[in-house]
Design goal:
- With 412 residues, the protein is an alpha+beta fold.
- 38% of the residues lie in helices and 20% in strands.
- The chain is built from 15 helices and 12 strands.
- Strands 1, 2, 3, 4, 5, 6, 7, 8, 9, 10, 11 and 12 form a 12-stranded mixed sheet that branches.
């Protein structure tokens, strides 16, 4: 059913007209009618119930499905994926309301062999360990109740970007540089801004939030954020500035400006807070009842990421979660949301990132995001683009069914 992800033929038939109209809009840029036809078949195959969503079983499920034609369309056909993603992002921003955030996150695709584009032995949060996999960085649009992927970047480890022959064989554009996941994430955000989407609060886990460059990149783009950080992150509890040393008498190198005192690690700051600083906050009603925990928030100044001749970093919110039953705090976030924001709203932003976990589950288990068996750069990008279309269509169908139920938001 629409709620579980896969559809049976009867359910797909019931919304066939809406699907056709949606895909005509989304696939307008891919060119010839024949290509649009294959794109439409592929999305239908992803939507239909079935264990595997690789091309052969997918073609078998769709009326008139042709394995070779679909393989060619996804793997070799030269259609550009960026215009498709742009139309999708603009469409979702208009239809899925109210948008409250962009979530940055990465996900792993377990793969055998070393031929598939970007595959390496690398850590994947999805696998929970180091394994042979591809890793993709995604940016997702989120409301309080839903989220959907808008754009993707495939992470290429240095073992790939330094091996021109291997890159050429996989069809990676010449001289594609090595980029960290944080750099890829900022590029994805630049796409959304170039496509004219309105700025949203950016949410990400500590894999991104730990990077002072990533946080600064968001500030440079005039974006608010609430991002996870590690407990070892160092901050100044009181705003502080470098001290200019007295000039030395005689020769020798001039002394550098320095700080008085030592910054504090977040875990030390948390354990020094008084019991009055902690408050129980409920951030949403979950299927298992209200989601609540204990939080504290205070203003801090990050102590890492200072550049020698640059001004000090601005003060930020530090949000800490310390469930009553836990021996130590479990999570930390830094945020540049306005100073007057309430603790509850700060918590709700920070906690919204979990939306994306459900996305991945549905994208993979039900829509076959990690079932693509092609090895090339172009095929991978085409496949994840078409999976994003299938996901968006399901979301719009779900929303259509819920239209009747009233829905209020106090994020705004």
């Amino acid at each position: 059913s629409v709620d579980s992800g896969g559809m049976n033929a009867r359910e797909l038939q019931a919304c066939a007209d809406r699907l056709e109209k949606f895909l005509m809009t989304m696939l307008a840029s891919v060119g010839r009618a024949e290509r649009r036809h294959h794109g439409s078949q592929y999305v239908q195959g992803l939507l239909l119930d079935g264990e595997r969503k690789s091309i052969e079983p997918l073609a078998a499920r769709v009326p008139g499905g042709n394995v070779q034609a679909l393989q060619q369309f996804v793997g070799q056909s030269p259609w550009a994926w960026e215009p498709v993603r742009r139309v999708l992002a603009q469409h979702l921003e208009e239809k899925v309301l109210p948008t409250v955030a962009w979530i940055i996150d990465d996900t792993g695709f377990a793969k055998q062999g070393r031929e598939s584009v970007g595959v390496a032995r690398q850590y994947s949060g999805t696998l929970g360990k180091v394994g042979n996999c591809q890793v993709a960085v995604g940016v997702h649009l989120a409301t309080e109740a839903e989220s959907a992927p808008l754009d993707w970047a495939l992470y290429l480890p240095q073992a790939w970007t330094e091996d021109a022959k291997r890159c050429r064989k996989a069809g990676i554009p010449d001289s594609t540089p090595f980029r960290t996941k944080s750099e890829l994430a900022l590029e994805l955000i630049d796409h959304l801004l170039d496509w004219g989407l309105s700025r949203q609060v950016v949410l990400a886990d500590a894999g991104y939030g730990n990077s002072a460059d990533f946080r600064q990149g968001l500030v440079d783009r005039r974006l608010h954020y609430a991002v996870g950080v590690e407990s070892s992150t160092a901050v100044w509890v009181k705003p502080t500035q470098r001290v200019q040393p007295r000039p030395r008498a005689g020769r020798g190198r001039p002394r550098r400006p320095y700080y008085r005192g030592q910054p504090t690690a977040l875990r030390e700051l948390a354990s020094a807070l008084s019991s009055q600083a902690w408050r129980q906050v409920t951030w949403r009603q979950g299927t298992q009842g209200p989601q609540r925990s204990r939080f504290a928030a205070c203003r801090v100044q990050p102590a890492h990421g200072h550049v020698r001749d640059e001004p000090e970093l601005a003060q930020l919110w530090l949000l800490i979660e310390w469930p009553r039953e836990a021996e130590a705090p479990t999570k930390y976030w830094l945020s540049n949301l306005p100073e007057g924001i309430s603790l509850r709203r700060l918590v709700r932003w920070a906690k919204l990132r979990w939306r994306v976990e459900q996305n991945y589950q549905q994208l993979k288990e039900e829509l076959g995001m990690d079932h693509y068996e092609g090895r090339g750069w172009q095929g991978w990008h085409h496949h994840v683009t078409l999976v994003s279309l299938a996901y968006a269509f399901l979301l719009l169908e779900r929303q259509r069914l819920k239209k009747n139920s009233a829905f209020d938001s106090d994020f705004a």
